[in-house]
Design goal:
Elements: H1 6-20, H2 22-43, H3 45-48, E1 52-58, H4 63-70, H5 76-80, E2 81-85, H6 88-96, E3 102-106, H7 110-115, E4 122-126, H8 132-154, H9 156-168, H10 173-189, H11 191-194, H12 218-247, H13 250-254, H14 258-290, H15 298-322, H16 326-343, H17 355-361, H18 365-377, H19 383-411
Parallel strand pairs: 1-2, 1-3
Antiparallel strand pairs: 3-4
Helix pairs in contact: 1-14, 2-12, 9-10, 12-14, 12-15, 12-16, 12-18, 14-15, 15-16, 15-18, 15-19, 18-19
Length: 416
């Protein structure tokens, strides 16, 4: 067998085995597709906007209480929250079942307390199973409370005139005019503070470039990490195949000729590269069409993912070859895969992780390679800035591990 042909022959044999054992390849492709599809459903249709349910129990039923609640029924908040008026019993039952993001209770006399500048309470119950939406409700309520406090201070005289009208439901035209003029005069006195001179805005339509940032959704953030998940699973199995060849006598027979052993390992690398290219071609094409990614970016994205898979493959090969037995290699390689998946942004996007966990994840090989891809593909950062340093680090890591693995594979004959 010629020295130049042997790596390709070994690669062909390895790929035939993978295709023959088709369920492994199917699982590597199916798992990322299922995860991204489920994330799309969870995030909801229409661009993955968050939606929540807000329960309101209004014991006061005055204009003031309705004004507080009305802030969630208009503007941007209305696009996120569905407001439902409930009784105390119904509200408690729905919150216990986890069917709402938050529950607001306004006590009787709330409106009078606000108008008379007296203490009052707003009860807020948050769903502990959610984090973002309940926090949005709490922040909005704090802003409304602060706004009410400023109104009490700035328009104390006007509120004193308005209060009897609201209580008796009798509105005198003269008093309304005086009230309106008082509010107008107060706003004019505060105009220099509240409404400073604005910058002049000039509208100019610009042509959108191809590299404009894509509409970022949770499912889109999950997509590159899910492809990395397929690469990690396949690199895991490919790294362990070398132990199968060792136990079957292939490695000992080739070890008599060092060049043959080197050609064998290079063939494994070629097989891994071709397998990764097949996986990322299928997943990348499906993801690109589903998320409407720029077609011009897909070829480079596929090459980057294939390169990333080779870096991860070399890492798994080193871990596998360092183990004393095939059984221990399986245990350790599998145990290494899950921290890489968890911290490297495959199970959860790093954007949703705590800062300290995301920082750890970016030091992992799949972490910094994934982050560079996201910065370029999703956030539309310049390619040189987003990919240069991840590529350099990945290339150095691949080269060093490739040299180390060529040494370790020769020592494998003493372990079988």
């Amino acid at each position: 067998m010629g020295g130049t042909r042997m790596p390709f022959t070994v690669a062909g044999i390895r790929l035939k085995r993978v295709l023959r054992e088709k369920w492994g390849l199917i699982s590597w492709l199916a798992i990322p597709i299922i995860i991204v599809f489920l994330m799309s459903l969870i995030a909801g249709t229409g661009g993955g906007k968050m939606t929540g349910r807000l329960l309101v129990t209004d014991h006061d039923e005055t204009g003031v209480s309705q004004f507080i609640i009305g802030g969630f029924s208009q503007g941007p908040m209305a696009e996120i929250f569905t407001v439902k008026q409930v009784s105390e019993t119904e509200g408690k039952a729905l919150m216990d079942d986890g069917d709402a993001s938050a529950w607001i209770v306004l006590e009787q006399g709330f409106g009078d307390a606000v108008l008379n500048n007296q203490p009052t309470k707003i009860k807020l119950v948050k769903n502990p199973a959610q984090s973002i939406l309940p926090q949005m409700v709490e922040s909005s309520m704090k802003l409304l409370v602060d706004a009410a406090s400023y109104v009490q201070v700035l328009f104390a005289k006007e509120l004193a005139v308005l209060k009897p009208m609201l209580e008796t439901q009798k509105f005198n035209d003269a008093e309304l005019v005086i009230l309106t003029l008082g509010i107008k005069n107060q706003i004019e006195r505060l105009e220099e503070t509240l409404f400073p001179p604005q910058l002049k805005m000039v509208e100019q339509q610009v042509e959108q470039s191809v590299d404009e940032a894509t509409n970022i959704t949770f499912a889109l953030l999950m997509f590159p990490g899910a492809v990395f998940m397929a690469l990690i699973f396949s690199a895991n199995s490919m790294g362990l195949y070398i132990w199968d060849d060792a136990t079957n006598g292939v490695i000992p027979r080739l070890s008599s000729t060092p060049a043959a052993l080197k050609a064998y390992f290079n063939g494994q690398v070629i097989a891994a590269a071709l397998l990764f290219l097949l996986i990322v071609f299928i997943l990348g094409l499906l993801g690109g069409l589903y998320f409407d990614l720029p077609l011009i970016k897909l070829p480079l994205m596929m090459l980057w993912l294939t390169f990333s898979g080779l870096v991860i493959y070399q890492l798994f090969c080193m871990i596998s070859l360092l183990m004393p037995t095939a059984k221990s290699a399986v245990i350790v390689v599998n145990a290494t895969s899950f921290p890489l998946l968890m911290l490297g942004g495959s199970f959860f996007p790093m954007e949703t992780m705590p800062t300290w966990l995301a920082t750890i994840g970016q030091f992992l090989p799949n972490g910094f390679l994934l982050q560079g891809l996201k910065d370029w593909l999703i956030r539309a950062e310049p390619m040189a800035e987003a990919l240069m340093w991840p590529f350099v680090l990945g290339l150095v890591m691949f080269s060093v591990l490739w040299l180390v693995n060529r040494v370790l594979i020769r020592r494998l004959i003493h372990k079988v």
